[in-house]
Amino acid sequence: MRCQDVTTVSHVETKPDQVELDAVKAELTDFKNMVAELSVSPNSQGRVKPRKRSLTPSRRTASNKGELKRLYWYHHRFDDKASKCVKPCAYPLN
After folding, report:
1. Alpha helix positions (H), 1-94
2. Which of 40, 43, 55, 77 supports an S-S bond with 59, CB 3.0-4.6 Å?
3. Which region ranges are annotated with the description Disordered (predicted)?
4. Which residues contact 44 (CB under 8 A, 6 or more apart)?
5. Is residue 71 exposed (0-12), middle (13-18) or buried (19+ Cβ within 10 Å)?
6. Which residues are CB-neighbours of 42 under 8 A, at least 6 positions away?
7. What pLDDT does residue 59 have?
8. For position 22, what pLDDT does the model report?
9. How many CB atoms lie within 10 A of CB 64?
10. Torsions phi, psi of 41, nearest 5?
């Protein structure tokens, strides 16, 4: 039998896989395009309908009742504990 000489490799220099690098570059380009589209979208230009401020139920009912319109705000809010009431005021205990 004959023996073959076996040589070993002590060091192999590797380079990044070009296909994988190209894929990462393409994905980065896609992300850049998406960011560019978002920065010029209609939502960022202030064309979104502003949200209407909703009133609390107590304010809604107070503005609809004629007798509460005449009440000073402090009485409407604090009832008979209102200490900053000024004349003229329609509060019955005033």
Report:
1. 18-39, 57-64, 66-70, 73-78
2. 55
3. 41-63
4. 38
5. buried
6. 48
7. 52
8. 86
9. 9
10. -70, 155
| CA gap 23, 31 in Å, rounded | 12
Report residue 41's pLDDT band, with 50, 70 and 90 as the boundaries.
low
Average pLDDT over residues 46-67: 57
Structure tokens at 46: 């202030």
User: How far does the chain reach from its first CA to its final CA, in angstroms?
Assistant: 122
Is 50 or 59 the better-scoring residue by pLDDT?
Answer: 50
Virtual torsion, Cα 52, 79, 71, 53, nearest 10 deg: 0
Read off the amino acid at residue 35.
Answer: V
- Half-sphere exposure at residue 56, Cβ-oriented, CA atoms within 13 angstroms: 3
The residue type of 7 is T
> What is the number of other CB atoms lying within 10 angstroms of the CB of residue 75?
21
What percent of the chain stands above pLDDT 70?
43
φ, ψ at 84 (rounded to 5°): -110, 25
Given a contact cutoff of 8 angstroms between Cβ atoms, the answer to whether 71 and 85 are in contact is no
